[in-house]
Amino acid sequence: MEKKDFEAWLDNISIAFLSLTDLQKNETLDHLISLSGAVQLRHLSNNLEILLKRDFLKLLPLELSFYLLKWLDPQTLLTCCLVSKQWNKVISACTEVWQTACKNLGWQIDDSVQDPLHWKKVYLKAILRMKQLKDHKAFETSSLIGHSARVYALYYKDGLLCTGSDDLSAKLWDVSTGQCIYGIQTHTCAAVKFDEQKLVTGSFDNTVACWEWSSGAKTQHFRGHTGAVFSVDYNDELDILVSGSADFTVKVWALSTGTCLNTLTGHTEWVTKVVLQKCKVKSLMHSPGDYILLSADKYEIKIWPIGREINCKCLRTLSVSEDRSISLQPRLHFDGKYIVCSSALGLYQWDFASYDILRVIKPPDFSNVSLLGFGEIFALLFDNRYLYIMDLRTEKLISRWPLPEYRKSKRGSSFLAGEMSWLNGLNGQNDTGLVFATSMPDHSIHLVLWKEHG
Q1: Burial of 435 (0-12, 13-18, 19+ CB in 10 A)
Q2: DSSP 422
Q3: Domain boundaries, the chain
Q4: Which PANTHER family match (predicted)?
Q5: Equal fold, 56-134 vs 137-448
């Protein structure tokens, strides 16, 4: 058929085809397909791919694709990644979507990372770790054995755990290997704190002592308390050591000479915790950079200005009940911005600039729960049976880990949290090392450690 005749025929067929009903059009197409050979069928298949299976994600500008993808949840996006290589490439490169998903999980975001494919991988790692936490599979346990009497004092720093015992010794352990690095003879230890060179101990013999790790020698002895010393803290820059005692006082000492600079009075119960920390906020009473001392007893937290040893007056006293009917748990968190302490009423958070209570967190059955660590995203808590992780954004418990029967000291020194940077948000690097340690009735130390990523 000549081209001119074919075009006229095609026009007539087209006009007739358009006049048919949908059913008649379908029957016509079926008949034409049955008459077609391989060449025609291949041509038909190729054109249908273009007409009916248009990849909108491939055709849209990248900015519009990212805008549409932001409306989908991460699990749906992961499913969409299976559609094609092109979809997987576009979805994986949508940085904002995956960063938001990671933040929602409580993951720290490093905005300096420019690789567009990085954050999907981070999200997959994050979702795995959070699932392990939810399924109670993120931790493992271990024990340190070496003391021959009760272990009262624990302190952790940079992968090292110090233990002080009734067997008149203190030991320094590498948590990752379980090996004892140093063991020195001391007095009975009710509190310990250490650095690379020295160990400071508070004792049931009413004194504080400073020891040299390498030789075991006592380099300083601080005498003056008339009751057991339950808590110590120090700062080399200030050359100051502070101690809290069962004699209801806090003493401020010159760290290098052992001289008592001041005795702070006002507590009417054992002082079970002292914390020396830089202030990070401004108020009428202090400025950023000022050193602040917090001391806590069974009912009150007192705030003192360090640096004014003469006529040092308490700036403020905090409590959760005016009639002293509610006692505080023997743990205290202070990061320079917030003060946090737990009680039978719940977890109290004070704003350090105003001393106002910001919130009271009351999860179920909180009466026996104690505070271990408090961050921007998570809090670490425990009771006689479990270690708990709370998401502070929702105030819901998201994970728990069983604990053995242990000796829960009323002074709060026979248990402690390990690494705590992850409480400000996990990042795939800080979920390693020690989570929790406590002394056991058989004189060992029970450790809860992060398990490596599966």
Answers
A1: buried
A2: G
A3: 56-134, 137-448
A4: F-BOX/WD REPEAT-CONTAINING PROTEIN 2, F-BOX_WD REPEAT-CONTAINING PROTEIN 2
A5: no
Distance CA 108, CA 114 (A): 15
Structural fold of domain 137-448: Methylamine Dehydrogenase; Chain H (2.130.10)
107-155 pLDDT, tens digit per residue, is 988 877 878 788 899 999 999 999 999 999 999 999 999 999 989 999 9
Gap between the Cα atoms of 196 and 213, Å rounded: 8
Q: What is the pTM of this model?
A: 0.82
For residues 305 and 165, what is the distance between their CA atoms, to the nearest angstrom? 33
What is the signed CA dihedral for 128, 134, 402, 339, rounded to 10 degrees? 100
- Kindly report, residue by residue over 42-92, the tens digit of the pLDDT: 888 887 766 666 777 777 887 888 888 888 888 898 998 888 888 888 888
Is 439 strand, coil or helix?
Answer: strand
What is the rounded CA–CA span in Å between residue 276 and residue 243? 10
CB neighbourhood size of 281 (10 A):
14
Amino acid (one-letter) located at 271: V
**Into which CATH architecture does domain 56-134 fall?**
Up-down Bundle (1.20)
Which residues are 203's β-sheet partners? Answer: 189
The helix or strand, by DSSP H or E, that contains position 190, with its residue range, turns out to be: strand 189-194
Contacts of 437 (CB under 8 A, 6+ apart): 154, 156, 161, 415, 416, 418, 445, 446, 447, 448
Task: List the one residue out of 225, 224, 229 whose CA is nearest residue 187.
Answer: 229
Would you give the distance in Å from CA 26 to the centre of its chain? Answer: 64
